[in-house]
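Hi P.,

Sorry for the delay on this. The queue was packed all week, but I finally got your sequence through. Input first:
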Amino acid sequence: MIPSPRGSAGGGPYVDATPSSRTPQSLEPDDHSTCARASLASIVLMQSSMPRATIPLPGDESPPAMASVVTVVWYILSSIAIGAIVICTIVFAGATGVHFLAAFLVALLNYEMTWYALGIRQKILRPFQLYYEPDALAASRESEVPLPYARVWAPKLRLHPFVFTGLVAALTSALCGGLLLLIQRDGGLGLDPLTFHIMVAYISSTCFVAIAAAMFTPSAMDGAILLLQQAAFSVLTLNTLLDFRAAVNGNIRSIKLIDAGFALSITFVPIVILRIVRSREVARTGVTLMLDLFTLQYVPSLLNVVVSVVQDYLNPDQLDPHEVPNYRLYALVLCYLELWAADLITLIVRQVCPARPPWVAVAASVAGALGTVAIYNAAVVPAAIPCLQKPRHFALAAFSALVYHVGCQFVAVLRFVAVPSTGPVLSSTWLVRLQYLLLFGFCAMLLERFEWPGDYSYTSSDVSGQILRMWQRIDNSSYTAYVDRTAKLDFISRISSLVKIIHIKPDERQLESWSAVKLHQLVSFYGAQVLRNATNAAAT
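Then the structure:
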């Protein structure tokens, strides 16, 4: 008998391959089947049906429960703390304090963006991993979360990760401060003591925060790129501190580095070189470079705009003595309070009413921004600054609330794409709580465009008028009156007087004189004032 060709190649017994049943076989392959590999297009399209890659949809979950009272109180107190820090920095520290605050924000937000980039890479590259490496570990290989280098090296030295990070950051900041001291003393930098102390404090504190953030990034390359972006962002501050003019050997010397925007642009060149040198896959390198470019244009560039606009507000052209003193400071604080109120009310609405329609939070934030403008004009803004009480400020407040929601939805989409379905990569929410600060520069620029249009379009006659006013200002005998007017319109004194009025303690004679007639007169007086202001606003 001739053996069948379907027999075993090793000379084993003949096995007939004729099916024993007429029923069709199942199209679902078992674990031991050897079916053909699926195409890349099918893997990409069917990614949501695969294990460990399911994207949760709003309809797949139960309705969210209302947050607890402790959570709502935490959001309110944290928002008040953030607002107090920003306003105190603007009012007390001025443009220099904003430079420090923005440098810290760049380090924190870039740290969080590195983890977002990791989650996005895992989700985008997962279909390619499943297609090109179809083994048992392919589904979970791209879902592994790496440990930061601080948590890897600290146990080897028997130190806590935070202690190890603090030591490294402190040594690095001390080294940078010492190098600046040597340049000042032996290199002929020539800074005055005040500017030198500010620069030492800025470089040391910025290095400390940036090194601490870089130590907790997903990889060493991410930490190095974070430091590059931090250095590029600091060019604007260094230009501001080094833009002095000193007499050296009979000549006027002024030190200024390259333009801040150009510094952020050329930073992408070393980032590309570093990524290509350490690249292993073309797809991974391309996605990583796109995310690096997005981070560079999103966080440092927008904060660069914030610092530049705030510096223009707080350091205006002093050649025009007819402008109301501290006018720009009041306008800048109002612009920030509009975004802050929209953020606070949106957080409260989302925590108290999680099942509300989306338009409820938008309407509530717009109403909060409008109420903030009304309260700010009634309680803080002096009567000598009537421009902040015009209707256009209410329109700008509503527009700022809408801009805030655009940025909020952008961050929500970013987190949705970045957080993998296997679990959260990052638990911090710095970008969620501080994203409206990135939009602060845009809203302040819009307000400046409406309030001071001459700053954007001027002719040679305007420049000649500024020079003429400068010479008039030098010989102006009413300069003392101008200084007194500045003191009366000081922002801090207005807030102090408001606090004193709130905490006033009347004596018994004052309590007896406060009768119903006095209350009626008080209500009538303020009612007449409100009607007069409304009539004047409508007339203008």
